[in-house]
Amino acid sequence: MSEVTHRTKTRPVKVGPLTIGGNNEVVIQSMATTKTHDVEATVAEIKRLERQGCQIVRVACPDERAANAIADIKKQINIPLVVDIHFDYKLALKAIEAGADKIRINPGNIGRRKSRSGCQSSKRKRHSNPYWRKRWFIREKNS
Question: Are 73 and 59 in contact (CB under 8 A)?
Fold first, then answer.
């Protein structure tokens, strides 16, 4: 018995070398359960997830110690790294500088619009791809 699945139409988004959403295939994602500042344990868990077919992994960034670990983690893994940010936009800026492929922000708990705009501006500068520079510029201009 074959069942047809209807997908909601979404906008495609680049995460590292992958494109998610739009008409692209579904991507397998997971979140690390370790404390992000424990680089060795986090990398070991991500490598296990990768062997099981995970294509994108998320880590929490609750504090400065976690933000400082992002660069070390990124160097040791082969799949895109998404960093979850809550409450402090400065952690988002650190994650971007450390090489995060994507940051995930809950705008309801980040604070002022100006802070979110700073994150967008920083991410735009990091991208050398003209497509993304243009997208961030348009998004920021229309905000």
Answer: yes
Please give the Cα distance from 54 to 117 (Å, whole number): 31
Query: Has residue 80 got a pLDDT over 80?
Result: yes
In a domain, 136, yes or no: no
| Amino acid residing at 140 | E
**pTM of the predicted model as reported, rounded to 2 decimal places:** 0.73
Boundaries of domain holding 51: 13-113
The answer as to whether 138 is a domain residue is: no
